[in-house]
Design brief:
Elements (H helix, E strand, L loop, with lengths): L6 H8 L15 H14 L15 H33 L1
Helix pairs in contact: 1-2
Length: about 90
């Protein structure tokens, strides 16, 4: 599943600042931005997950974000494995 970010969301994901506060209206994509920001920090900038803090206002929001990040990682791993299998098959 490909996620498309608008220019403001991309700016929030790839900003060079250490600390980022994401404030926006309900349904505007805050969780998507935060998930992509964490992924960018871990994958591209090699920040350890233990050095990242994400704070939400409710336990339900935290659970939602945690579940969505797990799904994001599973999809990413699935795509990686598919690509690896294609490379493996092409190699032989």
């Amino acid at each position: 599943m490909k996620i498309y970010l608008d220019n403001y969301q991309k700016e929030a994901v790839y900003i060079k600042e250490n600390n980022v506060l994401v404030v926006a209206a309900p349904g505007s994509g805050k969780t998507t931005v935060i998930i992509n920001r964490v992924n960018h920090l871990v994958t591209n900038l090699k920040v350890k997950l233990g050095n990242i803090i994400v704070i939400t206002f409710t336990r339900a929001a935290a659970d939602n974000m945690r579940n969505r990040y797990k799904i994001f990682l599973i999809e990413k791993l699935h795509l990686f494995l598919e690509h690896s299998m294609v490379c493996f098959i092409r190699f032989f």
